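Predict fold of Glyoxalase-like domain-containing protein; 296 aa.
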Amino acid sequence: MASAGPKSAGGIVPTRLRQVAFVTDDLAKAKRLLTTILGTEIVYEDPRVGAFGVANFLGMELFAVGGDIIEVVAPTTTLRASTTAGRLLKKRGEGGYMIIMQSEDAAARREYITSNGLGKVILNDEHDDVVSVQYHPSGMKGGIIPELDSHRPSKDNPKPLTSPFSPWHACGTDYKAYSAIMKRNTHIQLGGLVCRLAPGDVRHEEAPRQWEDMFGVARSRDLLAFTNARLGFMRGEEGKPEGIVSISIGVTGQDTLQGILDRASKEGLLENGWVNLLGVKWSFYLASFGTAKTKL
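Predicted 3D structure, encoded as tokens:
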């Protein structure tokens, strides 16, 4: 009997959509709109990000399973041409450009992906209980950079994948402070994302199969079924860039939902029920019984 190795270490594994990243050329405006319209708070500002050519803040969206993150980056003027975010901003304008997923063992999945030639690692970081692996987007359907991370279980963090407010390395080291912010913002929950394929690519049903094969995210028909959200794909269209087209956010309470829509309308961003923010359409809807039911 052959021993199990990296090539056989695939399969479906529980995976959480932990972080969605957007790029903009006006960070102050993005910060104001997210905190004002969504009623959320900044969870962390990372001083180290300047070394990578971006000024960064993490506006936070908390979902039914808790603790998830919206990230916004703005490349500095001097380094805009030499950063991934800067090049995408020039090519497609502001919008979503990366998703960060969380699994139980990102290192094992990295070995499976690389040994089977499914993807190319462009960033690999391992420290303390964290494994963070970013993959090259070339060949990936959906036009976004995929990253898969994990936290190793510990006495203080026994269930990092399923615990609603589990530690998340992107938020820094002050868990007490940032988890308190997470818990204050449970009025919003992630429902899902929709990505457009590249122009000419009309085989949208192949996209979730590719992501399932590579990262082990379960499929539900033509959607990727994360533990907390869904990711759908639409056909490519000539003249329109690939990437994130829309994001859906469940809201707890009718008054809270109406407040979000009213504030978006006041900013001139509400159109036909959608909120136009950070280059994508945002759908806000009433979450039933604390569970976001995606409107993909």
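The longest strand covers residues 188-196.
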